[in-house]
Design goal:
The chain has 29 helices and 7 strands. By secondary structure, it is mainly alpha-helical. It has 4 domains: 209 residues; 106 residues, Orthogonal Bundle (Fumarate Reductase Iron-sulfur Protein, Chain B, domain 2), CATH 1.10.1060; 154 residues, Rossmann fold, CATH 3.40.50; 113 residues, 3-Layer(aba) Sandwich (Rossmann fold). The N and C termini lie far apart (83 Å).
């Protein structure tokens, strides 16, 4: 189709584009290589089926915003198809007389899909341009008081416009080129859109010579845009097209979203703990910045962001990306950065606002983990700079001195069992299950009520269990989430000595934070425990017929999912099954508008139980207002921290006389 001179020019243009692309892509991967904990590219390539599956199915787009996700998926599928289309079009232009399977059913099917997906891509991109630039959809905007760099503020809209217009023009000119070809050679109803467009040219009275010129111009514009855009790819949000699947391939499996690898605090060559500067982050977390699609899904249910605080998980990755763009050459050369992450990637207040609910990690379509960045920066501020909320210091001191964050005597830890038939390990010697009451279950008044309810259930079911009593000490969960790795490891060692002493292998606990720490964080240290949440254990007892509570609860009730049971452990049904076991009418369980994997946090996780972030609305109030909207008389929980936060919100919202907060174990124990 092309004239000889055009072919020569195209070959030269390809060489120039590939050369420039090699430079910019090399810089991008050099930036990623600046991180610690190198990506094992052999393992990443072995994960190709996983990354390719995400790329091909686009399934991660449908976790939230299914309508918009569907449109984006159609654009992605169409653009993927265009990778093959571009190859065919190059062959058509460079090889005289070339046509892809003419007069063949396979060729007709190919042309039909290209035609239809061209329309879908054009329509989808127009929708996204209107949504971002005319409708100014708030879901795409990072609002104040979140820290967003000036380059990000300017670059986001510019970048979105460039990418949108690139796709629109590339696909549009290709469709126009196909219509000119049809005008020259006759109707082709395997390409309905292009054929209809060809009628327009005929109606306008264009001659054959104009069709030839139009076909050549369209071919050059469609493929020339690809050549022009390729070197710009690393600077563009469109890099997520291939960096997203690569991110999934490079992701290491975590025991839970908030569980980091164990830090070697005794290493002789250790100069840095946690992440202060960009190069302290692992390579995978630098890759996150390039994979980010800037869709801001991660902030849709972020408890800090939606209650007006300075944290947006989206802004973390966006700031990261534009910092890369601003310093691409110097970073690629290996020059050291000087600015601490908490000065440009997110503010210090934002850093402490994170409740580690896990929503941002769970919902990200490209596998980013902004919450992990936060945990690493916290480690730096605590261990290297001693900069953290004053209330957190009080908690550290109380845990270190008393073995609990309440600062109560360790000799009072087993007072809650007085008058209860509760076996203690030091007397019993061994048991199939260790019942772990936790600090809240031993010291908080409502927590003690839950503990008593659980032992009543265990006794009724004749479970072989015992408690550690005064030998139990804090797991170190809050210390670790706040960033005090030293205190966490100290607490873990104390508990692990007791586990070894009594041969503990199985643990039941009502505290999701203890559950995650004992099961996952201790697992990283090297002790593998079978830890089960009380909702799951009670559900098992019910299924086995070992307990048979009366089904006489008649009040309307709503259930609040604990983040560390739901998103962190993937358990949503067990607590609801337990509730149904005591309800006279299953329809009396009324879900809040945000529930299960879309549930909203109580605000206590990530250490926020112990210090107050005064910016914006209190998270527990936001959540309890949802419970009020259901019209339920009872709010059921399955977490000590959630219980405390919901009880507080009940009083603040003036519902202390009309609504009740209960744990699922209490409801079962009352009916045995």
């Amino acid at each position: 189709m092309l004239y000889p001179l055009e072919r020569i020019i195209f070959v030269l243009a390809v060489f120039v584009s590939v050369g420039l692309s090699w430079v910019t892509f090399s810089k991008m991967f050099k930036v990623i290589s600046r991180g610690t904990d190198p990506i094992d590219w052999k393992k990443a390539l072995a994960n190709f089926p996983k990354g390719f599956g995400v790329f091909l199915s686009q399934r991660t787009l449908f976790k939230t915003r299914p309508f918009i996700g569907g449109i984006h998926a159609a654009v992605a599928w169409g653009f993927t198809l265009y990778m093959a289309v571009n190859v065919v079009d190059i062959l058509y232009g460079m090889i005289p007389g070339f046509h892809f399977l003419p007069n063949n059913i396979i060729g007709d099917i190919y042309r039909f899909f290209v035609d239809i997906f061209s329309l879908l891509v054009i329509g989808g991109v127009k929708y996204f341009i209107i949504r971002r630039f005319l409708a100014n959809d708030q879901k795409l905007i990072v609002n104040k008081p979140v820290l967003l760099s000036e380059s990000a503020k300017k670059g986001m809209r510019r970048d979105s416009f460039i990418v949108g217009m690139f796709i629109l023009c590339h696909v549009g000119f290709r469709l126009i080129g196909a219509s000119f070809e049809i005008s020259l050679h006759g109707s082709d109803w395997s390409q309905p859109a292009a054929t209809v467009l060809s009628f327009v040219w005929t109606w306008l009275g264009m001659a054959d010579g104009s069709f030839v010129i139009g076909e050549h111009i369209s071919w050059w514009l469609a493929l020339g845009l690809i050549l022009a855009f390729l070197p710009y790819f690393p600077y563009s949000k469109h890099a997520h097209l291939f960096m997203g699947p690569l991110n999934y391939m490079a992701t290491k499996e975590r025991r839970s979203p908030a569980t980091l690898e164990i830090m070697d605090l005794e290493a002789e060559d250790a100069e840095q703990f946690g992440a202060s500067k960009l190069e302290h982050l692992p390579q995978k977390e630098l890759l996150d910045g390039y994979a980010c699609i800037m869709c801001s899904r991660c902030q849709d249910l972020c408890p800090a962001y939606t209650t007006g605080k300075e944290l947006s998980p989206s802004a973390i990755e966006i700031n990261k990306r534009y910092y890369f763009n601003e310093h691409l050459t110097s970073l690629a050369k290996g020059e050291e950065t000087t600015e601490p992450l908490h000065k440009w990637m997110l503010s210090e207040e934002a850093l402490w606002s994170c409740t580690t609910c896990g929503f941002c990690v769970d919902v990200c379509p490209v596998g980013n983990e902004p919450m992990v960045d936060i945990l690493r920066i916290r480690q730096d501020l605590v261990l290297m700079e001693s900069k953290f909320p004053q209330d957190a210091m009080d908690v550290f001191n109380k845990i270190e001195t008393y073995g609990n964050p309440w600062g109560m005597s360790p000799q009072d830890r087993e007072k809650w069992i007085e008058g209860q038939n509760v076996p203690v390990m030091r007397e019993k010697g061994t048991a199939e299950y260790l019942y772990w009451a936790g600090c809240a279950g031993a010291y908080d008044d409502r927590g003690k009520d839950i503990s008593k309810s659980i032992v009543k259930i265990l006794n009724k079911a004749n479970v072989d269990y015992a408690v550690l009593g005064n030998e139990e000490t804090c797991t170190g969960d809050s210390a670790r989430r706040i960033g005090n790795e030293y205190l966490f490891q100290m607490q873990a060692m104390q508990n692990m000595e007791n586990f070894e002493k009594y041969g503990v292998k199985k643990i039941i606990t009502q505290c999701p934070h203890c559950l995650t720490t004992l099961k996952n964080d201790y697992g990283e240290i090297g002790i593998e425990l079978e830890v089960i949440h009380h909702s799951q254990f009670i559900d098992q007892l019910l299924a086995e017929g070992k307990i048979k509570p009366e089904k006489n609860l008649t009040d309307k009730i709503t259930f609040h999912d604990a983040c560390y049971v739901g998103r962190h452990q993937g358990e949503y049904e067990a607590p609801r099954d337990v509730l149904q076991a005591v309800m006279a009418d299953k329809n009396n369980l009324i879900e809040m508008k945000r529930t299960k994997d879309q549930s909203f946090c109580c605000g206590a996780g990530g250490g926020n139980m112990w210090y107050e972030i005064n910016t914006g609305k209190r998270i527990n109030i936001e959540r309890f207002e949802e419970a009020i909207e259901t019209g339920a008389k009872k709010v059921a929980t399955s977490c000590n921290f959630c219980m405390i936060m919901m009880e507080d919100a009940r009083k603040v919202t003036g519902q202390d006389e009309t609504m009740e907060v209960v744990d699922i174990a209490e409801l079962v124990a009352e009916r045995l």
